[in-house]
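sanity check this chain:
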Amino acid sequence: MSTRFVLAALFIAGSISSTLADEPLDPLAPCGRVLSAESGIPEVAVGFWAFGYLDAATGEAHRITPENMEKMREVLRGRCAAAPDARLIDIARAIAAAEAGAEPAIAVDGRAFLEKFFSPSANHEAMTLALKPSPEDIRAVYAEPLAGKLVEAYDGLFVEGAAIRPKPGQTQLLSTFTTTAALKRGDPVLGDFPGGYEDILQFIVGDVPIARFKFVEPGETLGMAFDGLIHVNGRWVFMPKPWNVLN
């Protein structure tokens, strides 16, 4: 049933897009282009495709009612508005992961990376300096004029002696992983981040993993708190408190 549903959805979406659209429905294309009026691709075709992907990814046969279709279209529009350059297929993957309750692999990787700071042999200074973002990293996440100010600020932050490290007795990690696009949309996870992020949402241009984390003593929730661990351009970098440069 699931397979038949996927094939039917893809057939319908493909038929509609091929007969009415100016270009084919390409899931590898930026969502902003696929969902634009200029593409000529009806949103219902994109919705059918998204339901087909969701069905295949979760192993369920989702009922397509007018209400469910409109909700899917709203979700697609909302996620794409936050990240117009995101590929349609990546948005569908994120929707499927959220429905399945699956944690993105990048979050697992990020926690494994942070756990290294607890190692007795860890060179905290070297590990911290390796997290210094390049100007290209910063501009992949934030727009001007914030980006330029952050380039200068972070250049002065990552100096000899600077180190991210837990205090004695802090042997546990508390962390929240999400994406910059989720923060920009104002998803509930925004409340887990420092309030200053609300002041810089307008400058977010990328859709990349971001985390806040704490080193705490067992059973505690207060400890050494950090924000702005970001995975961009294939590596983890540290861009803390970006709102500080607005003053």
